[in-house]
Amino acid sequence: MRVPQSRPHIDDDDIDGVIKVLRSGNLSLGPKQTEFEKAIAAYVGTKHAVAVSSGTTGLHLCLVAAGIGPGDEVITSPFSFVASANSILYCGATPVFVDIEEDTLNMDPALVEAAITPRTKAILAVHIFGHACDIDAINAIAKKHNLIVIEDACEALGATIAGRKVGTHGNMAVFAFYPNKQMTTGEGGAIVTDDEKIHLLLQSLKNQGRSDDGNWLTHSRLGYNYRLTDIQCSLGITQLAKLDTMLKMRKDAADRYTSALRDTIGIRTPSTRPHCAISWFVYVIRCKPTIDRNRLLRHLMDHGIGAKPYLPSIHKQPYMQDLLKPVPRLPISEKASSQTISLPLFADISAKEQSFVVQTLLEGIDVQRR
Ligand SMILES: *Cc1c(COP(=O)(O)O)cnc(C)c1O
């Protein structure tokens, strides 16, 4: 048996919708874009949404809209996908990495204040693996120091804190729709905000800086082509319509892993912050020091299981060694990167596939304990 790390859930509604757009002749900047943006804003609970070509381009535009440029510093998490830090570098600004919490793997708010300098302009707060970071504490620090807060919610669509969805806590937030995310448009992303001015600016920036009066040949500012096609927006609409069902399927699968693995010696299952509902993006276990993580990972992969060492710390990536001088020491993030394994998780994973993953994992641990 082979079990991939992830697999998108695509049904006839998705396929029929895409075909209709193709037959309509309206392939970009059409009615599906507006419909998708309204649907995302309504789902998250913000006034506005802007569909963009990826989560990465969404993050870039948020920082541009926030006026981030050369000489500025943006505080962010080292335990994330590289896109969060890259978007800061695209603006010529400097990412300042703050270490993470041992249990949630999210940026530790207790360390944020010490990282603030006169150059700090914003905090890019990542909700890693679908688990909300302590955004209330981060917001309080930002308010005190007059900083902009951007939520990287690319892995956390549908996650809540005390019943309120992530994406509604910062000045802007970004979601992503690559095929391994909770819902997909192939490639794609969306920015949400309550700020009308920022909303108009983002709409212009993603569309070559076109003027707000809609004149196609007037460009008011330097912009980008970061648009999402109507073909993709249609997929977004039909995927979003079943998102809560897909999230429930992912949660049920995560719960099955937890009940099978909770008491296993040598590993730790994911922990949850109180009042937070996880939007299950990946299921990440943590090896204790008695277990050789890389050997266990190899055992899983040798048996056809798409397990991944999520995530390497960004500041340890080869290209960062030249960019960050000096390279910071972030021991909690570095340790997590050496101990974590992401097990296959997707809406349609079967109980049989999960049993195979669990059985293979237990074998791999057993081999090391003999
Ligand atoms: C997926 C992801 C992004 C954006 O990725 P794209 O592939 O550009 O859509 C950004 N940040 C995090 C944490 C992500 O997981």
Structure description:
- The protein is α/β, with parallel strands linked by helices.
- It is built from 13 helices and 13 strands.
- The protein has helices at 12-24, 31-44, 55-65, 82-90, 109-115, 135-145, 196-205, 230-241, 243-261, 293-302, 318-323, 331-339, 351-369; strands at residues 48-52, 73-76, 94-97, 120-126, 148-152, 160-161, 164-165, 172-176, 189-193, 267-268, 276-277, 283-287, 340-343.
- The strands form three sheets. Strands 1-9-8-5-4-2-3 form a seven-stranded mixed sheet, with helices on both faces. Strands 7-6-11 form a three-stranded antiparallel sheet, with no helix packed on it.
- Helix 2 runs parallel beside helix 8 and helix 3 packs across helix 4 (82-90).
- The longest helix has 19 residues, at 243-261.
- The radius of gyration is 21 Å and the shape is globular.
- The two termini are 26 Å apart.
- The model has no long low-confidence stretch (mean pLDDT 97).
- Pyridoxal-5'-phosphate is lined by residues 54-56, 80-81, 83-84, 126, 152, 154-155, 176, 178, 189.
